[in-house]
Amino acid sequence: MSSTAIHPSRLSQIPRPKTKTPNRPKPPKPQPASTSLTRSQLRKKIRDLTRLLNPPSSATTKLPATTRIDHERALSAYKHELSLQQTSSKVQLLEKRYHKVRFFERRKATRALSRLNREFNALDNNNNNTSSADEESKKEKEGLIKKIHAAEVDLNYIMHYPPLEKYISLYRSGDSKDTNQKRVRIRQDIEKRMEEGTLDRGDALVEANAAEGFGGGVDVKNKKKNNGSNNNNNKKQGHDGNKNGKSISDKNEDEDEDEGSDGGFFEL
């Protein structure tokens, strides 16, 4: 026996060579939609899956039922992701285009609302100090309430304008008849949503407004709830309803001064 020969007792320990099985073609697996894909990549995947699901009549191979279902789900997911990206891109474009106009109009509406609130608080305090309020002061108070409501609608018009629509300036005059009608229609829709309490607070514009220090619009329900408690606290806390001894009008004037000092590019 030669030195290279293997003892029969060790033959079982030697691994046998693996026989190669013939390669069988496997159908491609569908890939889930990913948010990291660009719009061009999503369009390409949608086009490829559409061609795969709708082969020409001369094609001999057909997809299995389970594979077709998976491809259809992936195609639906890609279309949904592409739609979201297109919508987000349009919203960002419109926000960037009308940011300056909306900034100045928002500041103007905020100051107008603060001024009307000061007038209302001053008139309300005068009525609380006097024994009886005359008819003229009551009419003036009712008129201020209507003006405050209109100012709140104006502010919410700017803050909650439909994000996919080209912005129509609130204070600009000389527009066409169709533009004016569209402005009135959107303003009426905002007012209706204020009354129903369905103003959307999750859109990108409101988040940008909050980051700039303008809050999320006017909360009408909370304002109405607080009116009664504020009137009762005015009598307990003194003439101006402020424990610190600073009148409400002085406090609001300080707030207006802070709003006016935005600085930078948007300084008037």
From TrEMBL:
Which residues lie in Acidic residues bias regions? 252-261
Superkingdom is: Eukaryota
Its subcellular locations are: Nucleus, Nucleolus
Q: Output compositional bias ranges, type Basic residues.
A: 17-27
Q: Where is the segment annotated Disordered?
A: 1-41, 211-268
Which function does this protein serve? Involved in rRNA processing.
The name of this protein is: rRNA-processing protein EFG1
Organism listed in the record = Orbilia oligospora
